[in-house]
Amino acid sequence: MKKGVILAAGHGTRLYPCTIAVNKAMLPIYNKPAIYFPITTLMQCGCREILIVTNVETVAQMDKLLGDGRQWGISIEYAIQGVAEGVVSALEKARGFCGKDEFCLMLGDNILIDEAGDYSLPTNSTSTVFLKHVPNPVAYGVAELDADGRLIGIEEKPAHPKSDYAIIGFYRYSPCVWDYTELVRPRINGERNISDLNEILLKKGLLQSATLPPDVLWYDIGDPDSMLNASNRVADMIRGGREVGEPSVIID
Whole-model pTM above 0.85? Predict the structure, then answer.
Protein backbone atom coordinates (compact mmCIF):
# COMPACT_ATOMS: atom_id res chain seq x y z
CA MET A 1 0.00 0.00 0.00
CA LYS A 2 1.66 3.21 -1.17
CA LYS A 3 -0.92 5.94 -0.71
CA GLY A 4 -3.01 7.09 2.23
CA VAL A 5 -5.62 9.80 2.74
CA ILE A 6 -6.54 11.55 6.00
CA LEU A 7 -9.76 13.57 6.18
CA ALA A 8 -9.45 16.46 8.64
CA ALA A 9 -11.79 19.13 7.32
CA GLY A 10 -14.49 18.95 10.00
CA HIS A 11 -15.14 21.76 12.45
CA GLY A 12 -15.38 19.59 15.57
CA THR A 13 -18.48 21.24 17.01
CA ARG A 14 -18.79 18.65 19.79
CA LEU A 15 -15.44 19.89 21.11
CA TYR A 16 -16.32 23.59 21.22
CA PRO A 17 -14.86 25.94 22.41
CA CYS A 18 -11.53 24.12 21.94
CA THR A 19 -12.08 23.75 18.20
CA ILE A 20 -13.28 27.28 17.46
CA ALA A 21 -9.72 28.28 16.60
CA VAL A 22 -7.96 24.88 16.32
CA ASN A 23 -8.75 21.87 14.12
CA LYS A 24 -9.60 18.88 16.34
CA ALA A 25 -6.97 16.80 14.56
CA MET A 26 -4.37 19.18 16.01
CA LEU A 27 -5.56 18.97 19.62
CA PRO A 28 -3.25 17.03 21.94
CA ILE A 29 -3.59 13.36 22.75
CA TYR A 30 -1.40 13.38 25.84
CA ASN A 31 1.93 14.62 24.44
CA LYS A 32 1.41 14.88 20.70
CA PRO A 33 -1.10 16.21 18.15
CA ALA A 34 -3.98 13.86 17.39
CA ILE A 35 -3.14 13.76 13.67
CA TYR A 36 0.18 12.08 14.47
CA PHE A 37 -1.80 8.90 15.19
CA PRO A 38 -3.48 8.45 11.78
CA ILE A 39 -0.19 9.38 10.09
CA THR A 40 1.55 6.68 12.13
CA THR A 41 -1.17 4.13 11.34
CA LEU A 42 -0.93 4.80 7.61
CA MET A 43 2.86 4.49 7.76
CA GLN A 44 2.50 1.17 9.58
CA CYS A 45 0.31 0.05 6.66
CA GLY A 46 3.09 0.91 4.23
CA CYS A 47 1.77 4.28 3.02
CA ARG A 48 4.56 6.66 2.13
CA GLU A 49 2.51 9.20 0.16
CA ILE A 50 -0.19 10.87 2.26
CA LEU A 51 -2.80 13.46 1.34
CA ILE A 52 -4.48 15.45 4.11
CA VAL A 53 -7.84 16.97 3.17
CA THR A 54 -8.56 19.91 5.44
CA ASN A 55 -10.32 23.28 5.36
CA VAL A 56 -9.07 26.69 4.30
CA GLU A 57 -8.83 27.94 7.90
CA THR A 58 -6.53 25.07 8.91
CA VAL A 59 -4.26 24.30 5.98
CA ALA A 60 -1.52 26.80 6.91
CA GLN A 61 -1.43 25.56 10.51
CA MET A 62 -1.37 21.95 9.36
CA ASP A 63 1.48 22.69 6.97
CA LYS A 64 3.42 24.42 9.76
CA LEU A 65 2.95 21.42 12.03
CA LEU A 66 3.65 18.63 9.54
CA GLY A 67 5.40 20.21 6.57
CA ASP A 68 5.89 17.97 3.57
CA GLY A 69 6.67 14.88 5.65
CA ARG A 70 10.31 14.57 4.62
CA GLN A 71 11.39 14.50 8.31
CA TRP A 72 9.68 11.09 8.50
CA GLY A 73 10.75 9.83 5.09
CA ILE A 74 7.31 10.30 3.55
CA SER A 75 5.51 12.78 1.31
CA ILE A 76 2.60 14.84 2.68
CA GLU A 77 0.36 16.91 0.43
CA TYR A 78 -2.73 18.99 1.24
CA ALA A 79 -6.12 19.54 -0.36
CA ILE A 80 -8.94 21.84 0.74
CA GLN A 81 -12.61 20.99 1.14
CA GLY A 82 -14.25 24.37 0.70
CA VAL A 83 -17.73 23.49 1.94
CA ALA A 84 -18.50 20.90 4.60
CA GLU A 85 -20.61 18.47 2.56
CA GLY A 86 -19.66 15.22 4.24
CA VAL A 87 -16.99 12.56 4.09
CA VAL A 88 -17.64 11.45 0.51
CA SER A 89 -17.27 15.01 -0.78
CA ALA A 90 -14.00 15.32 1.14
CA LEU A 91 -12.83 11.97 -0.23
CA GLU A 92 -13.42 13.14 -3.79
CA LYS A 93 -10.71 15.77 -3.24
CA ALA A 94 -8.27 12.85 -3.20
CA ARG A 95 -9.22 11.39 -6.57
CA GLY A 96 -6.39 12.98 -8.52
CA PHE A 97 -3.89 12.11 -5.79
CA CYS A 98 -4.88 8.44 -5.65
CA GLY A 99 -5.35 7.93 -9.39
CA LYS A 100 -5.51 4.22 -10.18
CA ASP A 101 -3.80 3.14 -6.97
CA GLU A 102 -5.25 1.32 -4.01
CA PHE A 103 -5.28 3.49 -0.92
CA CYS A 104 -6.09 3.61 2.77
CA LEU A 105 -8.48 6.24 4.08
CA MET A 106 -8.54 7.36 7.69
CA LEU A 107 -10.66 9.95 9.41
CA GLY A 108 -8.51 12.48 11.23
CA ASP A 109 -10.35 12.06 14.51
CA ASN A 110 -9.84 8.29 14.66
CA ILE A 111 -7.00 6.77 16.65
CA LEU A 112 -5.76 3.19 16.37
CA ILE A 113 -3.18 1.88 18.83
CA ASP A 114 -1.77 -1.60 18.37
CA GLU A 115 -0.84 -2.80 21.85
CA ALA A 116 0.76 -5.97 20.46
CA GLY A 117 2.78 -4.06 17.87
CA ASP A 118 2.39 -6.66 15.13
CA TYR A 119 -0.95 -5.99 13.41
CA SER A 120 -0.91 -5.67 9.64
CA LEU A 121 -3.65 -5.04 7.10
CA PRO A 122 -5.18 -7.94 5.21
CA THR A 123 -3.78 -8.05 1.70
CA ASN A 124 -6.38 -8.44 -1.02
CA SER A 125 -7.81 -6.59 -3.98
CA THR A 126 -11.23 -5.90 -2.44
CA SER A 127 -12.24 -2.72 -0.67
CA THR A 128 -12.45 -3.34 3.06
CA VAL A 129 -14.13 -1.76 6.06
CA PHE A 130 -12.63 -2.48 9.46
CA LEU A 131 -14.75 -3.52 12.41
CA LYS A 132 -14.31 -3.21 16.14
CA HIS A 133 -16.43 -4.77 18.86
CA VAL A 134 -17.97 -1.97 20.94
CA PRO A 135 -20.27 -1.82 23.98
CA ASN A 136 -22.47 0.94 22.50
CA PRO A 137 -23.08 0.22 18.80
CA VAL A 138 -26.03 2.63 18.61
CA ALA A 139 -23.50 5.47 18.41
CA TYR A 140 -21.83 4.23 15.22
CA GLY A 141 -22.25 2.77 11.79
CA VAL A 142 -22.87 -0.91 12.49
CA ALA A 143 -22.03 -4.01 10.47
CA GLU A 144 -24.70 -6.64 9.85
CA LEU A 145 -22.99 -10.03 9.57
CA ASP A 146 -24.22 -13.44 8.44
CA ALA A 147 -23.69 -16.69 10.34
CA ASP A 148 -20.21 -17.02 8.83
CA GLY A 149 -19.21 -13.49 9.85
CA ARG A 150 -19.46 -12.04 6.35
CA LEU A 151 -20.63 -8.46 5.91
CA ILE A 152 -24.17 -8.35 4.50
CA GLY A 153 -25.46 -4.95 5.58
CA ILE A 154 -24.61 -1.56 7.05
CA GLU A 155 -26.73 0.44 9.47
CA GLU A 156 -26.05 4.04 10.52
CA LYS A 157 -26.58 4.58 14.28
CA PRO A 158 -29.47 2.08 14.46
CA ALA A 159 -31.87 2.06 17.41
CA HIS A 160 -31.72 -1.75 17.42
CA PRO A 161 -28.27 -2.81 16.14
CA LYS A 162 -27.95 -6.16 14.40
CA SER A 163 -24.44 -6.63 15.81
CA ASP A 164 -22.00 -5.16 18.31
CA TYR A 165 -19.43 -4.38 15.61
CA ALA A 166 -18.86 -0.76 14.69
CA ILE A 167 -17.45 0.24 11.30
CA ILE A 168 -14.57 2.45 12.30
CA GLY A 169 -13.16 5.46 10.45
CA PHE A 170 -10.45 3.44 8.71
CA TYR A 171 -10.95 1.96 5.24
CA ARG A 172 -9.05 0.34 2.43
CA TYR A 173 -10.28 1.08 -1.08
CA SER A 174 -9.50 -0.23 -4.52
CA PRO A 175 -9.53 2.36 -7.33
CA CYS A 176 -12.97 1.18 -8.44
CA VAL A 177 -14.41 3.27 -5.59
CA TRP A 178 -14.24 6.33 -7.87
CA ASP A 179 -16.87 4.76 -10.12
CA TYR A 180 -19.41 5.03 -7.31
CA THR A 181 -18.73 8.18 -5.27
CA GLU A 182 -20.92 10.29 -7.55
CA LEU A 183 -23.87 7.97 -6.82
CA VAL A 184 -23.89 9.06 -3.16
CA ARG A 185 -26.59 11.67 -2.65
CA PRO A 186 -26.73 14.19 0.22
CA ARG A 187 -28.76 13.26 3.26
CA ILE A 188 -31.24 15.65 4.87
CA ASN A 189 -28.34 17.44 6.62
CA GLY A 190 -26.70 18.15 3.25
CA GLU A 191 -23.83 15.72 3.82
CA ARG A 192 -22.80 12.78 1.65
CA ASN A 193 -22.22 9.93 4.06
CA ILE A 194 -19.51 7.30 3.72
CA SER A 195 -21.90 4.62 4.99
CA ASP A 196 -23.97 5.19 1.86
CA LEU A 197 -20.88 4.76 -0.32
CA ASN A 198 -19.93 1.55 1.47
CA GLU A 199 -23.47 0.23 1.12
CA ILE A 200 -23.32 0.80 -2.65
CA LEU A 201 -20.02 -1.08 -2.84
CA LEU A 202 -21.43 -3.90 -0.72
CA LYS A 203 -24.46 -4.33 -2.98
CA LYS A 204 -22.12 -4.47 -5.98
CA GLY A 205 -20.10 -7.23 -4.33
CA LEU A 206 -17.07 -4.94 -4.05
CA LEU A 207 -16.75 -4.65 -0.27
CA GLN A 208 -15.76 -6.94 2.54
CA SER A 209 -15.01 -6.51 6.23
CA ALA A 210 -12.14 -7.37 8.55
CA THR A 211 -12.39 -7.38 12.34
CA LEU A 212 -9.62 -5.76 14.31
CA PRO A 213 -8.21 -7.94 17.09
CA PRO A 214 -8.62 -7.02 20.78
CA ASP A 215 -5.02 -5.78 20.95
CA VAL A 216 -5.84 -2.98 18.49
CA LEU A 217 -7.48 -0.16 20.45
CA TRP A 218 -9.78 2.30 18.71
CA TYR A 219 -10.86 5.77 19.77
CA ASP A 220 -13.13 8.19 17.95
CA ILE A 221 -12.08 11.47 19.58
CA GLY A 222 -15.04 13.54 18.42
CA ASP A 223 -16.15 14.29 21.98
CA PRO A 224 -14.32 15.26 25.21
CA ASP A 225 -14.76 11.90 26.98
CA SER A 226 -13.27 9.92 24.09
CA MET A 227 -10.39 12.37 23.82
CA LEU A 228 -9.69 12.04 27.53
CA ASN A 229 -9.86 8.24 27.40
CA ALA A 230 -7.43 8.14 24.48
CA SER A 231 -5.04 10.55 26.21
CA ASN A 232 -5.06 8.50 29.41
CA ARG A 233 -4.32 5.26 27.55
CA VAL A 234 -1.51 6.87 25.57
CA ALA A 235 -0.07 8.31 28.78
CA ASP A 236 -0.11 4.88 30.44
CA MET A 237 1.67 3.30 27.48
CA ILE A 238 4.34 6.00 27.27
CA ARG A 239 4.98 5.86 31.00
CA GLY A 240 5.39 2.12 30.57
CA GLY A 241 8.12 2.67 27.98
CA ARG A 242 6.09 2.21 24.78
CA GLU A 243 6.19 4.98 22.17
CA VAL A 244 2.91 5.34 20.28
CA GLY A 245 1.55 7.82 17.76
CA GLU A 246 5.04 8.80 16.71
CA PRO A 247 5.81 8.80 12.96
CA SER A 248 9.55 9.09 13.56
CA VAL A 249 9.74 5.52 14.91
CA ILE A 250 8.27 4.10 11.65
CA ILE A 251 11.04 5.49 9.42
CA ASP A 252 12.51 2.73 7.26
Answer: yes
